[in-house]
């Protein structure tokens, strides 16, 4: 019996992934839980395990190819003919043996199988533990390889009007390229004048999430500056001690703690709006996301229950997440359940910004570049260390007064770090 395992929905709103590495070959025996393929999905790289024991009869997709949720990954022989014999049997030239080909059916979102005998009948993808049934005659919709279908979609081409030259008239990648060059007559761009790089899954997700946030939240941003000379003094006092333990003590650790404590007093900024059910959801846990810059783009791992952690514990988690992010080892669980986000661009450059809310959260705090400035303290003009803050909120949720009170609370904690340490 053949079982077609499709790319599963692994959460976080994912709808596609890129094949990074195959771990199985045709004819290979596998056990439930064995890794089939490594996929780059959303902002992580994850291995997809086998749901069943059996023998790999077919693989769908090559390394670098984009696979959509619901599309076939492998076909597994779960009983009957085993090993390489299953593959040999499927490819025999004998007229009585029907050859199996991969076909993506229009509107189905999955890859089924086509029996070539007479080119007249289609098998739909099998349900779990159920043999596919002959159900209908071949329609006039084009048969196409996944790569060809993806190329046509990217170029806004109706795949049904492209003439296929592959087996049984299937449209191939070469057919789409030929259609573009001969039919559409698009101008050719000199390769020497541009560099064309396919979008990564991370960049696609960032683009999608930014548009989603801008379309669904009413952004409002306030700017402030806080003098942190005392915080800097405390940081330097304990910096070397923690460094001996392999922990880097940064300003960000103090900011994470200050934000978590401030959220406990301003529940509006630790909430989200449920428009469909007409509710506000106020969260009684304080999970702070920290935006980390990587070569592939921003990722946002989450420090859970930050209000209950010490500065030392928060700094250790920041360092751990930074290392995992730059090595591409973050897991989906590392980035779930954030209630508020902090983005720190000051180490690279910039004083103020208008951060985009990590929707559906209610706010995001941006940290700018720390500078020395003349300030007035106790009616005396002195040189102070100033940290710029940019707070964006969803104005549907947080009014101007509550927003100002929230950022003032953060500033109080940062200007008087002893109040952070005793909480």
Explain this structure.
The chain is α+β, with helices and mostly antiparallel strands. It is 26% helix and 28% strand. The protein contains nine helices and 22 strands. The protein has helices at 83-90, 146-154, 173-184, 201-216, 229-243, 251-265, 311-326, 400-415, 418-421; strands spanning 2-6, 16-22, 29-30, 35-41, 44-49, 54-59, 66-68, 72-77, 100-104, 111-115, 121-123, 134-137, 219-227, 271-274, 279-282, 288-294, 297-299, 302-303, 340-344, 363-367, 371-377, 380-394. The strands form five sheets. Strands 13, 16, 17, 18, 19, 20, 21 and 22 form an eight-stranded mixed beta sheet that branches. Strands 1-8-6-3 form a four-stranded antiparallel beta sheet. α6 (251-265) packs across α8. The chain is elongated and about 85 Å long. The termini are far apart. The model is unreliable at 81-140 (pLDDT under 50).
């Amino acid at each position: 019996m053949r079982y077609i395992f499709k790319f599963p929905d692994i959460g976080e709103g994912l709808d596609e992934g890129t094949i990074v590495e195959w771990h199985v070959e045709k004819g290979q025996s596998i056990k439930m839980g064995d890794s089939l393929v490594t996929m780059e999905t959303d902002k992580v790289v994850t291995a997809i395990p086998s749901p069943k024991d059996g023998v790999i009869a077919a693989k769908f997709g090559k390394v670098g190819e984009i696979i959509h949720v619901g599309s076939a990954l492998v076909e597994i022989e779960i009983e009957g003919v085993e090993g390489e014999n299953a593959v040999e049997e499927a490819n025999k030239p004998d007229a009585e043996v029907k050859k199996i080909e991969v076909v993506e059916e229009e509107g189905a979102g999955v890859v089924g199988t086509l029996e070539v005998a007479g080119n007249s009948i289609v098998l739909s993808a099998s349900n779990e533990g159920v043999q596919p049934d002959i159900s209908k005659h071949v329609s006039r919709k084009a048969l196409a390889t996944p790569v060809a279908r993806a190329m046509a979609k990217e170029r806004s081409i109706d795949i049904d009007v492209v003439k296929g030259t592959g087996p049984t008239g299937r449209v191939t990648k070469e057919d789409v390229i030929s259609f573009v060059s001969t039919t559409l007559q698009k101008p050719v761009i000199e390769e020497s004048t541009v560099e064309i790089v396919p979008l990564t899954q991370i960049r696609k997700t960032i683009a999608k999430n930014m548009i989603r946030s801008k379309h669904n939240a009413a952004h409002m941003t306030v700017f402030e500056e806080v003098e942190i000379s005392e915080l800097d003094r405390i940081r330097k006092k304990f910096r070397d001690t923690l460094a001996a333990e392999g922990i880097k003590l940064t300003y960000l650790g103090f900011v994470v703690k200050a934000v978590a404590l401030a959220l406990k007093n301003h529940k509006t900024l630790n909430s989200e709006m449920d428009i469909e059910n007409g509710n506000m959801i106020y969260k009684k846990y304080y999970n702070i996301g920290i935006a980390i810059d990587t070569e592939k783009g921003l990722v946002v791992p989450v420090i859970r229950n930050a209000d209950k952690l010490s500065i030392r514990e928060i700094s250790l988690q920041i360092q751990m997440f930074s290392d995992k992010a730059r090595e591409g080892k973050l897991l989906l669980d590392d980035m779930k359940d954030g209630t508020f986000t902090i983005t720190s661009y000051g180490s690279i450059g910039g004083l103020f910004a208008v951060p985009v809310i990590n929707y559906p959260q209610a706010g995001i705090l941006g940290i700018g570049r720390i500078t020395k400035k003349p300030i007035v303290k106790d009616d005396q003009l002195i040189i102070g260390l100033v940290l710029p803050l940019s707070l964006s909120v969803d104005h549907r949720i947080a009014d101007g007064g509550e927003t100002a009170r929230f950022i003032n609370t953060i500033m109080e904690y940062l200007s008087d770090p002893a109040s952070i340490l005793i909480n």
